[in-house]
Structures are given as C-alpha cells and as structure tokens.
Specification:
heterotrimer, A mainly alpha (about 120), B alpha+beta (about 575), C alpha/beta (about 100), A: about 120 residues, mainly alpha, about 0% strand, elongated, B: about 575 residues, alpha+beta, Rossmann fold, Heat Shock Protein 90
C-alpha cells in the first residue's frame, strides 16, 4: 500500500538475511538517507533532482519504506514539469516522511533476533 | 533463505552507489556462499574488475563519476573472449532504459527491490552461460591445435610421397602439360608419368576414394609399382594387373582407386588406354578436329580380385601433334556461385571452339577460371601430345658398380610356346639380362625398342597371323587390336625363339639378337624396298629395327630376324 | 531414420532403403542394417536417395563383401538418372544388378 510507512514483511526478510548485521544495515540506511536528503535539496537542475530522487527511491524500496519510495517516485516523474513551488512541496513531504520513519528504524535496532 | 541446490562459490563484484543497498546485496550473496567485491561507482568497478577478475558483476545503472553503462562497456572490453555476465540493478521501468542495459553489454537485469530468489536464479543461469562459453573456447583451441597436427602430418606424408614420385618424368618431358593443386594428394588425386626403356610414355591419372591421409596412403605403393614396372619395360596390361592386385591386397574393402592409364608410343604412333572409373578422357586429332571419347569401361583399381581383373586396353592411332586429355571429376564438378556445374558439355564447347591446338590446354584452364570463381583442390588435368620422337630424351639409368664382373662371352636361347605367349611378356626379363652387360647399358633405349619391335612382329604377324595393313586407318586399327586379343586368348600352338649372343670384339663387344617365329613369314624383299624413314601406321617396324640396330637381316622367308649391337670399351 | 532395413517374411531377402544423401555420414547406419543378419539376397532401394558419392560405392563394396563377395546376390533398384550415371562411370553394374 502506498500509505504504509514501513513494510513489516520486508523488515522481517531483511532481518533474516542480515542476521547479526541487521543493525548495521539500518544504520547504513539511515546515514545514507540523510545524505540523499541533502542531495535532493542541493540539486542544481531538474536532471540532478530526477537522478537523486530515482536513487533514493530504490534504496527506500529495498528497505521497506514504501511511502517514502512512492514520494521519491512522484518527484522523479514530475520534476521536469512541475513548478518550483510544487517541487518544494514534495521535498517538504519527503522530509517529514523521513522524520516519521526514522524513529521506527531506530526502534528496529533494538529488536532481538526473531525466532527462525 | 536457503535456496535450492548448493552452487559453486563465485567471486561477484557489486557496483552500487547506495551504501545500504550495497550492504544488503553483499549479505545476500555472502549467505549464498559467494565471495563479494564492492564498488561505489563505475571507476571503482572497472578497477576492481581489472585487479580481481570476478566471475559475475551486479551493476547499478545510475552511479556517480562513471555510470553503470560505461563501466559495463569497459568491463566487457577488458573481458575479451571470456564471458563475464553483467546483471544490471535497476528500478528503471521504461523499456528504453532497459534497452540501454542490453546495448551496453548487459546480459540481464534485476529490479529493485531485490528479490533474493530471483537473484539466485539469475546468478545460476548466468553461471551456466559462463561455463558454456568457457567450454566453447577451450574446445575451439583444442580443435585449432589438432588441426595444426593434421597439417603437419600431411606435410610429412607429402614429402615422402614426393621422393617416391621423383623418378617420374612429369616435369621433364616437353610433351606433357598438367594442372594439379598442391593439395591434390590429400584429395586422393594422383598424377604419374614415366618413360619406358623404349621411349614410350606411361601416364596415370588417378582418384582414390576418401580424403586426407587415407587417400594419400594408397598412392605410394601404387606409384612404386607404376614407376618400377614402367622402368623395367613392362607393358600397360601387366602394370595394371600388378597395381590392381596390390591395391586389392592392401586397401580395405571399401577403398579403391579410379584411374585412367595410358601408354603413348611415339614410335608406333598410337595410344593405348585403360579407364576404370574416371571421367571421359579425350583424344583430340589435330588434322580433322575429331575428338574420340576415352570412356570408362572398367571397374576401378583395387576392387576385383586378380583372377577376374580385366586388363583389356583400347588402342587408337595418333598422328604428330595429336593430344590426349585426361581429367579428374573436379573439372566437371567445378561450380559457380549459383551452384551450377561446369559439366561435360561446356568442356566439349571449349574443345569445339579451339582453333590452335597448342593453346587448348590453356583455354580449358581459362574457361574453368572464368566459370568457377571457387577454386577447388581436386581439379587435375593432363595433356599429352605426340611429338617427333627425336625430341623426347628419356634419361638413361645410371649405375654405380664398376663392371669388373660383367659377363662378356655367352649365349642363351629361349623358346616360348603357346601357353606362355598367351600370358607372359618376356621382354622386361630379357632386357634385365642384357643390362648385366655394362657396355650395353648406354643403349638400353634402342635395344629395348628393337627387342620390342622384333617380338611384337614375331607374335602378331608371325604366330597370330595378323595383317599389318589393317592398321592403315583408325577403324582398322581398332579391328586389328580386337583380333589380336581374340587370337591370343585362343592360341594353342606356335612358338617364338629368342637367341642372344654376346661376344667380345677388339676394343669392345657385340650382341647378336635372333628371333624366330612359327608363322607364315612375309615378302622380305618387298618390305625392304620401302624408303628407310617412311613412318607409317602399318608395316613391320622394319625401318625402326634397321635404324636402331646394325646389320639387320631377315631369313627363312621372314620367319627369322637378326640384328646386332656393338659397343666400345669404356675407358 | 535415413537408412531403413526390412527382412522379408521368409527371412531370405533383406531390403535396405536409403533416404536423402547416400554418403559417408550414413556409414554406420548402413553397416548396422546388415551386419548381424544372415544374408541370402539383398535389395538396396535408392528411390529416395538424392545423391551418391564414392564413399557410397565403398559402402556397397563392404556390403557385397559381407554378403559373400563374388557369390553375393545384391540388387540396386530405383536408381535415379544421376545415381545411375555415377554407377555407370565406375562400372559398378559389373558387380551389382542395377535398375
């Protein structure tokens, strides 16, 4: 569902694959994401914006952050034709979505390993 | 998630700019037992490939510094012949973007978010392809090596064969022209030519079944028989019998040699032909422009056992300048770009439109070139013309013994009776005997010619009673030889006596040859009245005997002929 | 199957039919068609044979050798014009009954 913040099934699968490395993966993703958010804000033209949004979308998808991935997708496809105001609006939404899921991922860090 | 069968551990390079994605993929792959290399952009990916030579590459399409497409191109170039599968990691959905992956040399793509099962399946499939390609290259190299060995074996075989063929006269005689590919031997094509002691020429154009060494291997024993017997003075029939028997004995049942064999006699102005399995040869008469086809009437050599082998030859008269053409089936089978065959008809056209016999051979060659385009390895062609006998100089045999122990004062007599006359040619033996006398060796040619002539007269005109005037024209010629065969086959009485006497003289020696037959004799005086250098189809070769030997004389009403040879002591 | 063989009901005549090119590629199949049989008389049917080369002639010689050599009873039937020409040049009609 496009409105799902974090897909539990994906997280479970990730945890199973990563095992002891799961927290590291979460940390890496969070650090990576902050960098990408900065990239989005610093994009000089539409093309750079599209590429950055595209990349971020991919990461989010892998990590189960469905709503965030969806937002990045919208930004990717509409950047060329949108006004600066609309782009700014999407960027704000992306920022706030990330603010929501960040603590959820941090909570995940504390989760003990699920029974196989 | 444990997948299906365990897979061999591969070294996989992950080129992905997102750290989290990189980490995720690495874990998935490590869990599957693979060794993982990582790169964060295209430049790092190419460098890592150069250093580590991974088996497989997972390449993100969008990367900073150098994107996945360019990195893929460079990696494929570095890999060369070896297959290094590249799987693009992409969330690109438009088909154009996917086409870019393939254009850049990508072998597959994996969509994000990553599905482990799909990833594992794709890796497995790519690995199968990679191994397949490696096998193909390995086998290709093996084949190339093997091919080189074969070429070398053939070089060796050809070198040996050339030594055997060395004693022939193919390149030495002015009246032979030939066309043969250097690879002919390995197509089973054989061309042999040699002089008999009397200056006649034996020619063989052959075609062994098969290709490569098996075809070449039969050629050597055949060539040895051909050259050996021809040099000793054996006739075509005996040589054919021996060649057939040899091949029958040594070759496997399904191998044989098609052959067209000729004896061209400059003295007797005729050609004797035996064709077993070769395409039609052509006897081209210059004066009338007529062409006689020399058709295959026999089974190839090596098929029939000696008891049933047919050594029957056809004899045709030849005038000065007439030519015989023999060809292998490569000529008729030469094809053009549309796979049309040159065919016998086109060949006949070339013959028909020729105006100058001397260029006929070149015209045929040209016609083939103009038609074919595709040069074949098995086109063999030979032209033998009848030239003035003086122009042909068979090389005399060279002996190395000192002559200290040669017989100088002796005589011997033979009587050959009907049963022997039917099946035995004593001439090679008699010549061999006379070669023991060193002083005679330099005259082997004339000696053999005279012996042959005397014996032929004694047999054909004497014992068989054939009328030499039959040979006056071409059709009479044919009838003559048919009668000869028929009468010889049924001969049950008669004889030929041969007396040889060698005595020393002051400063040298003398050989007296006397031949008697049991026939009716002939009008000696009338034949003697003919001018000496009158060469005709008919006649008893009396002129020849008188020219080559000394003191030729006939007695007992022509039933007894006598001729002498002299020599001087060599210093 | 490009070489088909069939024994007559009374077991006395073997018919071998060749489809397509009669050349070295058929070597093994052809031999297998007759090698384990007791041969009294053999018929080689070339109705569907498109081409014949010298290795086919060799194969016929092997068959003849197996079937009794000079005493063999072998007929080659339904030869096309081209096939017959090849057999004629090599005079194989002196060894086989060819129609």
């Amino acid at each position: 569902m496009a409105d799902t913040h974090l897909d539990r099934d994906v997280l479970n699968a990730l945890q199973e694959v990563m095992e002891g490395e799961y927290p590291t993966l979460l940390d890496t993703f969070l650090a990576d994401s902050e960098q990408r958010l900065r990239q989005l804000r610093r994009a000089a033209d539409a093309q750079q914006l599209i590429e950055a949004a595209h990349s971020f979308k991919g990461s989010c998808g892998n990590m189960g952050a469905l709503r965030l991935a969806h937002l990045c997708g919208r930004l990717e496809y509409t950047a060329k034709d949108s006004s600066l105001a609309d782009i700014e609006q999407l960027l704000i939404e992306i920022d706030s979505e990330f603010a929501i899921i960040r603590p959820l991922y941090e909570a995940e860090r504390q989760r003990p390993l699920a029974q196989s | 998630m444990n997948a299906t069968q365990p897979q061999a551990s591969l070294t996989i390079l992950i080129a992905e700019d997102s750290a989290a994605d990189r980490l995720l993929l690495s874990s998935i792959l490590r869990r599957a037992g693979h060794v993982v290399l990582t790169a964060a952009n295209g430049v790092e990916a190419v460098a890592a490939f150069r250093q580590q030579q991974p088996h497989l590459v997972l390449m993100d399409a969008m990367m900073p510094v150098m994107d996945g497409f360019e990195a893929a191109r460079q990696i494929k170039a570095l890999a060369g012949e070896t297959l290094v599968p590249i799987i693009f990691l992409t969330s690109l959905s438009e088909s154009e973007a996917l086409a870019r992956c393939l254009e850049a040399g990508g072998d597959d793509f994996l969509a994000k978010p990553y599905n482990q099962i799909i990833l594992a399946a794709k890796i497995k499939a790519m690995e199968r392809l990679r191994r397949l390609q490696a096998t193909v290259l390995q086998q290709r190299d093996q084949i190339a090596r093997h091919h080189d060995y074969l070429l070398n074996e053939q070089r060796v075989a050809k070198a040996v064969f050339d030594k055997v063929a060395h004693s022939g006269c193919l390149n030495a005689a002015p009246n032979i022209r030939y066309l043969q590919s250097p690879y002919a031997l390995f197509n089973g094509d054989l061309l042999l030519a040699a002089f008999t002691p009397s200056g006649d020429m034996h020619v063989l154009l052959g075609d062994f079944t098969g290709h490569g060494l098996p075809a070449a291997v039969g050629a050597m024993p055949l060539a040895e028989v051909f050259y050996g017997m021809t040099a000793k003075g054996y006739g075509l029939a005996e040589t054919l019998r021996e060649m057939n028997a040899k091949l029958k004995r040594i070759l496997p049942v399904d191998m044989f040699c098609c052959a067209a064999v000729l004896c061209v006699s400059f003295h007797r102005r005729c050609v004797e032909v035996w064709n077993g399995g070769m395409p039609d040869g052509y006897l081209h008469r210059v004066a009338s422009g007529e062409r006689t086809q020399l058709v295959s009437r026999h089974l190839p050599l090596g098929v029939l056992s000696p008891e049933v082998f047919d050594d029957c030859t056809d004899v045709w008269p030849m005038a000065l300048g007439d030519r015989v053409f023999l060809l292998s089936d490569g000529v008729i089978d030469t094809a053009d770009a549309q796979d049309q065959l040159f065919g016998a008809q086109r060949l006949q056209q070339v013959f028909a439109s020729n105006r100058q016999p001397d260029v006929l051979f070149a015209e045929i060659e040209q016609a083939l070139r103009d038609f074919g385009g595709q040069a074949r390895d098995d086109v063999s062609m030979v032209e033998i013309s009848l030239l003035q006998s003086g122009l042909i100089h068979p090389a005399s045999l060279v002996y190395s013994d000192s002559g200290q122990s040669c017989p100088l004062d002796w005589s011997v007599s033979f009587e050959f009776r009907a049963a022997t006359l039917r099946r035995f040619n004593p001439l090679p033996y008699l010549l061999q005997l006379l070669q023991e006398v060193h002083g005679l060796r330099a005259q082997s040619g004339p000696l053999y010619s005279v012996l042959t002539e005397l014996y032929a007269n004694a047999l054909e005109h004497g014992v068989l009673g054939l009328d030499s005037s039959l040979k006056r024209d071409a059709s009479g010629f044919v009838r003559y030889y048919q009668q000869r065969k028929a009468r010889l086959d049924t001969l049950d009485e008669g004889f030929i006596r041969v007396h040889l006497q060698v005595t020393p003289t002051d400063g040298g020696g003398r050989l007296v040859i006397r031949i008697e037959d049991s026939g009716e004799g002939f009008d000696v005086a009338r034949v003697m009245r003919r001018p000496m250098d009158d060469i005709r189809l008919s006649g008893r070769g009396v002129s020849l005997i008188r020219q080559l030997g000394q003191n030729a004389r006939w007695s007992d009403d022509g039933r007894s002929a006598c001729v002498e040879f002299f020599w001087e002591e060599m210093a | 199957m490009s070489v088909v063989s069939q024994m007559s009901r009374d077991g006395r005549q073997l018919t071998i039919s060749i489809k397509g090119r009669f050349d070295f590629a058929k070597h093994q199949e052809f031999r297998e068609a007759y090698e384990h049989q007791d041969l009294e008389s053999v018929v080689v049917d070339l109705k569907e044979a498109t081409y014949l080369d010298s290795s086919a002639l060799g194969m016929l010689l092997l068959l003849r050798d197996h079937a009794g050599g000079d005493d063999a009873d072998i007929r080659v039937i339904n030869s096309s014009m081209d096939v017959r020409k090849i057999l004629a040049i090599s005079n194989f009609d002196k060894l086989f009954d060819i129609t």
